Amino acid sequence: MNPSFGEWYRKAKIQPRSEDLLARSKAIEAFTKKVDETKIAELVRCFVGVAPKETSVMEGFTKELLATDAAFPTENNTIEMQVLCGAALASILEQPSPLADSAALMVNSASAGGFRKAPILPNIVQLSSSYLSGRSDALRKIDTRRKFSGVKYDQLIEAVKSAAATNSAIQLQQPLETILKTMSDAINNVAVVAEQTSQMLERADAVLLEESNVIWWVFGGHSRDVGKRFAALEPGFAAILAGKELADLTRSPGPKAAPAYLDKQLNEHRDKKLKLTELIEQVSKGWLKEFKPAKDFLDLAPVSFLLSSVADGLNSAAAVQLAKRQLANRSKPTSIVVFRSEKHMEAGSLKFRSLLRVLTANAVARRVFPLPAAKFVRISFPSCLRA
């Protein structure tokens, strides 16, 4: 359990006893041993204060808490449950895995970059950001080539020659076995090194291809979805498109340099601030018709939730009011920087969870932004750059 567990209780203005912390820690450990995407999503919903979808998950968590402490309060415990769900998420993030990646992406997406009411423990959001940063580095790390030195056979050959000169099969047996075994081991080592080198080159190619795709996208300054320059688009629409398109071009978790890429792409709009009503009014209705995200985790992606509500036929004013209630938003203007970063995080999170379902269920799942799990899209030069 995270050493800050007790401090998280105190930040929530709950004074814990040591025996309570020990009991809660054991319950969290037991609950997080068998988590899946649905359980993680419910933990995130509770943590950020979003209404539950699968009540059975929190009921199961409560049973684990009661198993270690029969006196655990099961009513009027909203604040403590938020702390416990945050602690459970922190526990999941301790061991890197695809499920932990999904948990970190959900936490950052659901926290909404500061325009949702802040969770009771901002430390958990910081932990998930640090986790994603480390995973991004690990995903894009290019390994160094393994050195391989050959085997010196001169002494072994001389031993075989000397044994052969005796004209005795018994004398020849041991030197032959030694040289043949040495040759076999060397061939096997070459095969292992060749396979490792091939995998290293594949990873390096993926990293360089991703970087190339992003650099040409930024340098070209054109939206891949609508074929127009970002500078010529309305600020709100440009922010939404830039976040979504960068997620299209990269693996999840996204690159650490994502904020810099987005900042460069939206250079003309960086100082703009918009309310949610202004944001949705600036998004192209034609583009919205093609916006078809998976619905199961949409409540953890507030900007995508707003866009999807309008795409489904809800008028802009009603969609904004619905989003404000979910976000506890006070209608204050929000920087374009926040919107584009939030949309990028949401797009990456939704895409990653779609790919995760494919990997775990080995079946086709709905995807927000289709991208083959092991391939990258090669970008042709923008028409304005061709000779």
Describe the structure in your own words:
With 387 residues, this protein is mostly helical. It folds into three domains: 135 residues, no CATH class; 51 residues, no CATH class; 165 residues, no CATH class. It is 63% helix and 1% strand. It is built from 16 helices and two strands. A two-stranded antiparallel sheet has the order 1-2. It is flat and about 100 Å long. 35% of the residues are buried.
Offer a concise description of the structure.
The chain has 387 residues and is an all-alpha fold.
What's the total number of strands? Answer: 2
General shape = flat
List low-pLDDT spans: 355-387
What's the end-to-end separation, in Å?
59 Å
| Count of DSSP-assigned helices | 16
Sketch the topology as an H/E string, one letter per element: HHHHHHHHHHHEHHHHEH
- Percent helix range: 55-70%
Count of the separate structural domains = 3
Oligomer state of the chains in this structure: single chain
Radius of gyration: 28 Å
The averaged pLDDT comes out at: 79
Strand order of the largest sheet: 1-2
Largest sheet: 2 strands, antiparallel
What proportion of the residues form beta strands (DSSP E)?
under 5%
- What would you call the structural class? mainly alpha
Topology readout:
Blueprint: H1 5-11, H2 18-32, H3 37-48, H4 55-68, H5 78-92, H6 98-111, H7 122-139, H8 154-165, H9 169-220, H10 235-249, H11 258-265, E1 273-274, H12 276-282, H13 285-289, H14 302-311, H15 316-327, E2 334-335, H16 336-361
Antiparallel strand pairs: 1-2
Helix pairs in contact: 2-4, 2-5, 3-5, 3-6, 6-7, 6-16, 8-9, 9-11, 10-11, 10-16, 12-15, 14-15
